[in-house]
Design brief:
391 residues; alpha/beta; 4-stranded mixed sheet; 13 helices; binds pyridoxal-5'-phosphate
Length: 391
């Protein structure tokens, strides 16, 4: 604390190492992890195949810049192209940078089409897209925005899952709609089918780009490699990060061929580190582990068991209003009278890592390798935390 800028209110724990679905602190105490480092550690801690792949790359080559090709880049791009169902990949260093890239892609697409700048973007209230200035500009939460005004101009906010509210905001110069396929930080809210299909249709009619942010909900977490795949539609631009690198910082925005041919060109965008060999080795290993170890099948098999436990809490405790979520991305909506912060702290002291989300929600993002044993263990600890609450 003497040396760090005080931007985070960190919990009073110092982690030392991780193993599978648990973290261990410097005193050797075990913590069952239902946060996965905010949705990153999809295959848990200490995975030998992943560590070997990254270590081999470290020993071979760890930086070239984007002035050149390297072998790890070719492999990672092919892996992300295939996994995403889209056509062309740009690697970034974080989730927020995928949003920056997606915004610039949409703006350039409209600029080339119309011959002038000045387009608008529609985003969703209660959304979260990251902390850089462009990402904050499309984040529909005043708490994250207000101190930093003026932000990027020309962003309007519709109500998530209310198609009509988005339609009402479309203007001649609207170039894109950006939404999370499942809102994470905003309180774990999956998009309804009619809403997402309706946004796709609206974008097709007006030649606007549909940007789906799957930084948190993608990479198998919701029961398919990307959650949009459950809706029978495709985005024009997909933003992916977090579990994409299995813990190595990396993200990517992926576009279809039409967007690739009619938007960003050499000179329009760049990054020194994006697509760095170590990050690329991590991406290839992550995609391959999620596929080859059948982690998506594991999510689909065991998520109903997790949901049943969470529904049990809804029945048992009056201050829990509802369960929301999909796959291994779940939330419990609490009454305002029971602040989520206290529950997260008490669970931590009892050896369970939970996350909170906006609107007083307990958020759970367990590693995709978790199963019934981990869910039973979570139930025991969380139940003992909830029992202590007097309303
Ligand atoms: N988009 C979504 C949906 C997120 O949940 C996050 C981070 O939590 C981001 C973007 C930003 O990602 P990063 O923190 O890697 O910049």
């Amino acid at each position: 604390d003497e040396s760090l800028l005080h931007i985070y209110n960190r919990f009073p724990v110092v982690f030392d190492y991780g193993k599978r679905t648990s973290l261990f602190d410097v005193n050797g105490k075990e913590y069952l992890d239902f946060g996965s480092g905010i949705g990153v550690m999809a295959f848990g801690y200490g995975d030998k195949e992943f560590e070997d792949a990254v270590t081999a790359q470290v020993k071979k080559l760890f930086h070239t810049s984007n002035l050149y090709y390297h072998t790890a880049l070719a492999d990672a791009a092919a892996a992300v192209k295939e996994a995403s169902g889209l056509d062309k990949v740009f690697f970034t260093n974080s989730g927020a940078e995928t949003i920056e890239g997606a915004i610039k892609t949409a703006k350039k697409y409209a600029y080339k089409k119309k011959g002038h700048a000045g387009c608008e973007i529609i985003a969703a209230q209660n959304s979260f897209h990251g902390r850089t200035v462009g990402a904050v500009a499309v984040t529909g939460n005043d708490h994250y925005r207000e101190p930093f005004y003026p932000l990027m101009d020309g962003v309007r906010f519709g109500t998530y899952n209310d198609l009509e509210s988005f339609k009402a905001l479309v203007k001649d110069n609207t170039c894109a709609i950006i939404v999370e396929t499942v809102q994470g930080e905003g309180g774990i809210r999956p998009a309804e089918k009619d809403f997402l299909v309706g946004l796709r249709k609206l974008c097709d009619e007006k030649d606007m780009l549909l940007i789906l942010d799957e930084v948190q909900c993608g990479m198998g977490r919701c029961g398919s490699m990307y959650t949009y795949m459950q809706y029978g539609i495709k985005p024009d631009v997909l933003c992916t990060a977090k579990a994409l690198g299995g813990g190595i910082p990396v993200g990517a925005f992926v576009v279809n061929d039409n967007v690739a041919a009619n938007s960003l060109e050499p000179g329009d965008h760049g990054t020194t580190y994006g697509g760095n060999p170590i990050a690329c080795a991590a991406v290839s290993a992550s995609v391959s582990i999620i596929k080859n170890r059948n982690l998506i099948e594991n999510v689909n098999e065991n998520a109903p068991y997790l949901e049943k436990i969470l529904e049990g809490f809804v029945d048992k405790y009056d201050f829990i209003q509802e369960r929301r979520g999909r796959g291994y991305m779940q939330g419990l909506q609490l009454d305002a009278s029971v602040p989520v912060g206290g529950i997260v702290s008490n669970a931590l002291s009892k050896g369970l890592i939970l996350l909170s989300a906006g609107g007083n929600v307990i958020r759970m993002l367990p590693p995709l390798i978790s199963g019934k044993d981990e869910f039973d263990h979570m139930e025991k600890i969380l139940d003992s935390v909830l029992q202590e609450i007097t309303v």
